[in-house]
Amino acid sequence: MDARISNLAAQIAQALNARGQTLAIVESSAGGLINAAMVAVPGASAYYLGGCVIYTPKSRQGLLGIDELNMSGFRSASEPYASMIAERVRSKCGATWGLGETGASGPTGNRYGDAAGHACFAVRGPVDAVVTLETRSSDREANMHTFACHALELLLTCVERA
């Protein structure tokens, strides 16, 4: 794991522990890097309640209980969808904070028309936030690391503002 991601995870862990708060994560195109970063911090069981990688409609329904009816009016890799999955994982795990990430890591775009390097991030909790990132890169691994870093930066900003 790169040092920037590890450093952000450690800062988030410290902030959550200081506040007695908890976190649940759902990610897609970051492929588990966000969850792994938070679990890698010693003492993660004090603040990390769980997380998942949602990569298909089948996993979205099985892990988050979001079916086609719930998806009406939504498309994956969008800000409203990122917000919905962040709230869903937060509420299902009973966490203070929910973090959601969805996008297209590359080397090609997704079936929704988003180019490689497109990702949306949402935080739901005492402070809500949602943002979109466009790296304009087709480098899958670099995008995955960039997405994880950006998601953690957004979460840290929200936790510190709460």
How would you sum up this structure in a few lines?
This protein is an alpha/beta fold and 162 residues long.
List descriptors:
162 residues; alpha/beta; Maf protein; 5-stranded mixed beta sheet; 5 helices; globular
Question: What does this entry look like structurally?
Answer:
The protein is an alpha/beta fold and 162 residues long. It has one domain (3-161): Alpha-Beta Complex (Maf protein), CATH 3.90.950. It is 43% helix and 20% strand. The chain has five helices and five strands. The chain has helices spanning 3-19, 33-40, 57-64, 79-93, 140-161; strands at 23-27, 48-53, 97-104, 118-124, 129-134. Strands 2-1-3-4-5 form a five-stranded mixed sheet, with helices on both faces. Helix 1 (3-19) packs across helix 2 and helix 1 runs parallel beside helix 5. The two termini are 28 Å apart. 46% of the residues are buried.
- Average pLDDT, all residues: 97
Which fold name fills CATH's third level, the topology?
Maf protein
Helix percent reads: 40-55%
Could you say which overall geometry the principal axes of the C-alpha atoms support?
globular
Q: Count up the helices.
A: 5
